[in-house]
Design a protein that fits this description.
Layout (H helix, E strand, L loop, with lengths): L8 E2 L4 E2 L2 H16 L2 H11 L6 E2 L1 H8 L14 H14 L4 H9 L35 H6 L30 H9 L5 H9 L3 H4 L10 H19 L8 H15 L4 E2 L1
Antiparallel strand pairs: 1-2, 3-4
Helix pairs in contact: 4-5, 4-10, 5-8, 7-8, 8-10
Length: about 260
């Protein structure tokens, strides 16, 4: 099952039997320890200067393929193959070409790892910071155990620093590839595609129904688009690689239709 976080503990060692699940659990312990309101704001300010690299989309994909995602229990394919599988599944179902491009691009923000960002600050599920952490976030117990915001009266109430109905665009999310890529591409895709990029890892919202009190009418209108996208991200993963040489002309033309020749990272 995809996103299966159930534990199988070896009683003799008191450790997880599955080394992949143990890796994922260790990842989330670190992520939930250090993703604070202060960290997310400071890191956002640092990386949204876009002063590190300027690359074509294809150079960026080559760059991305150096990464193995420690938060993902579901695939051993390289990053580009996952993105291509996602895009092809969307295309097969007859969705608009901008959504196909969204599928192709949706994890490109993980290049942050290659700018010396630790994986806990790039990948994994995202969540609001600056207010109470939902217990529907995967491994939520680590927040109370380790995250200083969970004990900070400014941030540990239901609304924290926010007002009810303020809108997700006014909420600081844990820093990661979703937010980063949203800002890179925000001038080039329709609003529905931008929500797919920005919130596809916000499972506590689009899967569990949490944080409704932070939403405004625009978020409610966009939520079906995020829900539509999510299965393509999860369930398009398979061990068979797409035939890139056959598909390449279509995707080269698609990128040229919507995106500039280079992107700043």
């Amino acid at each position: 099952a995809y996103r299966d976080y159930t534990e199988q503990i070896d009683e003799s060692t008191n450790k997880e039997v599955d080394p992949v699940k143990e890796r994922v659990k260790t990842f989330y312990k670190t992520n939930h320890t250090f993703q604070t309101y202060e960290f997310a704001n400071a890191t956002r300010d640092e990386f949204l200067k876009f002063n590190r690299k300027e690359l074509t989309v294809w150079e960026a994909f080559d760059f991305l393929n150096q990464l193995v995602d420690d938060s993902d229990p579901d695939t051993d394919l390289d990053q580009f193959q996952h993105l291509l599988q996602t895009a092809e599944a969307i295309r097969k179902d007859g969705h608009p070409d901008w959504m196909v491009l969204t599928g192709l691009m949706h994890d490109l923000g993980k290049v942050l790892c290659l700018f010396d960002q630790p994986q806990w600050a790039v990948v994994g599920d995202t969540f609001p910071v600056g207010c109470a952490f939902s217990n529907k976030i995967v491994y939520s117990e680590y927040f109370d155990q380790h995250n200083p915001d969970a004990k900070d009266e400014r941030y540990n109430t239901k609304l924290g620093v926010y007002k009810e109905g303020c809108g997700l665009r006014n909420v600081v999310m844990s820093w990661g590839h979703d937010e980063y890529l949203y800002h890179i591409l925000k001038d080039y895709l329709p609003e529905e595609g931008l929500y797919m990029l920005r919130y596809h890892s916000f499972y506590a919202w689009h899967r569990e129904g949490e944080y409704s009190y932070l939403m405004d009418d625009h978020d409610r209108a966009m939520l079906p688009s995020v829900k539509l996208f999510n299965p393509y991200d999860l369930y398009s993963k398979c061990p068979v690689k797409p035939d890139w040489e056959a598909l390449k002309p279509y995707y080269v033309a698609l990128v040229e239709k919507y995106l500039p020749k280079t992107l700043k990272f």
